[in-house]
Amino acid sequence: MARKDGWQSGMCGGTRWINSRNTGTTAAFTEDQEKQAEKDLQKLTDDYIAKIDQHLAHKEKEIMTV
Fold first, then answer.
1. Where along the chain do its domains lie?
2. pTM for this structure?
């Protein structure tokens, strides 16, 4: 079943297919690869949120001292 965003559920082996609109090629990912990519993306997101929080705390301290 195709979705509007280009993802399709594969019928064999729990594979997800992504259709690239730009190149017309197709890439397949296993469920394990998809879960690992989600974990990697979540870690990256968490790291950047932590950096933003540090900058925000520094900026708040800077503003309160003036």
1. 7-65
2. 0.53
